Structures are given as C-alpha cells and as structure tokens.
Amino acid sequence: MSLPRFKRVLLKVSGEALQGQEGYGISRQVIQNLADEILQVVQKGVEVALVIGGGNIFRGLAAASQGMDRSSADYMGMLATVINALAMQDALEQKGIATRVLSAIEMQQLAEAYIRRRAVRHLEKGRVVIFAAGTGNPYFTTDTAASLRAMEIGAEVIFKATKVDGIYDADPNTAQHATRFEHITHYDVLKKNLRVMDATAISLCMDNQMPIIVFDMTTPGNIVKSLLGEEIGTLVGQLNRPKPKEERT
What we know:
By secondary structure, this protein is an alpha/beta fold. The chain has nine helices and eleven strands.
C-alpha cells in the first residue's frame, strides 16, 4: 500500500462548498461525501485538522456592506462556522471517526475552548480536530484562521478545497482561455491578485513557508490522491517546509 506523503495536514473548506446545489445551508450529500474522503485519509494514518467557513449561512462582510456594524457582523459569521463545524463533527462521528471541535469563542456546552497544545494532543491521538469561530476576532477571514491554525499545529500543508481544479490567471467560468497554474509562488499570488485566499492569509503562509494545495473538492478522491503523491490542482509555495521543533509539556 502506498504511504501518505504528509503526516499532518489542515483542510480548509468554504462554507459555500457545503451548500452544494441548495443555494443556502448545508447539503447532507456534500458533507457526507467530505466525511468519506476524510475517513480514507485518517485510515492511512494522517492527522487531519479542518477549518470550515460560514458563508453558506451568514457572511459578515456582506452584512457589513449593507450597513451592519462590521464587528457584530463578523461575530455572527463566526457563529455560522460553529454550526458548520458541529454538522461536520456529526457526519464524521457517524462514520466512527473521533473528533473534537475547538472554538476560538468559548461555548462550553458545544465545543472545547481553543488551546494550541490541546489541539496538538488530539491530533496525536488520531482525532480529527475541527477549528471553529475563526480566530475569535473580527476583521479576520476563515482563510486567515486556517493559515494561523496550520502554523500553530505544525501542519505540513494546507489543502484549500474549492469548486475549481486549481488557480487560474482569470475566472475559468467566464474567461474562455483562462490558464491554470500547476505551481506558483505565494508572492506571485499576491502580485497577480489571484484571490484564491485573502492577502493576509497568503502573506502569513509566505512568511512561514507554508505550502498550499488548491484543488477541486467536487471530484471524488482528490484529497487521497494528493496525499499519496499524485499532483492535484495548484501548488502554492514549496512542499517539505522546515518542521518546527516539538515542544515538551
């Protein structure tokens, strides 16, 4: 059996991806398919953490553009990510996968408070860790939360799940001759304003040499294929980044 390429990864899924064709809310079929993919990865011994957006329920930036206080709108968006995290936890646990939801906003009846060392220990014990409520601060996206958490837990790569098969130089849905990048640097993503993740998230990954793999989550098996070494989607940065030294507790 092929050995996985990574030991610890962080998967970033947008809230919009969870709605499937529904247009709003959570598609049970989409979340079940995602759980199946994660199950295969976990069975290969890979430690998996997730960050899920909340755009399928509430988008803070959109509400702020309509006159709502930005901080209040962002906190509402954080609560939407908690709903998605609990739905993902339910789907995973129905498949026998041990999970923990760690929230940046304390809500002890629903989730554990985020503590970095606790998150790492859960991963070491084979549990899937779902990070909810973003960074716990307004004005930061879940892309930035994913970059921050990936750095904190010592993930080797961020998998950015989208509805397209990589990063293009133009919108492939509207530009007939859009060209897909197989590999691109963090700097060029910023310079070309490609918007695969927000600038803060990309800058954080660039400063800490965190690679990102952007791939199509609607194609079954893509996560597992990439873990086993097949080139899927677009690679941002370089793999095999230097690993931080493990801290003793």
